[in-house]
Specification:
3 helices, globular
Length: 68
């Protein structure tokens, strides 16, 4: 039996932005904002070639300070 509570939702910046816009179509969050957070090492990411992979849940927590 798998324990999904430890699973990270890893997304490219573009995919993460699509997910954010699904929940809030009027969001002011942009690709550039997420990229800058990676460049400034404010959020966790993995560089894979030219792609940047972010931990989506960590990104949401950082952006919206969600306390679940």
């Amino acid at each position: 039996m798998e324990n999904n509570s430890c699973m990270n939702r890893l997304r490219t910046i573009r995919s993460a932005l699509i997910e954010i816009k699904k929940e809030d179509p009027e969001t002011c969050i942009t690709y550039g904002i997420i990229k800058r957070l990676c460049d400034e090492e404010k959020i966790q990411y993995i560089k894979q070639g030219n792609r940047i992979i972010v931990n989506y849940d960590f990104l949401i927590d950082y952006l919206f300070n969600r306390k679940d």
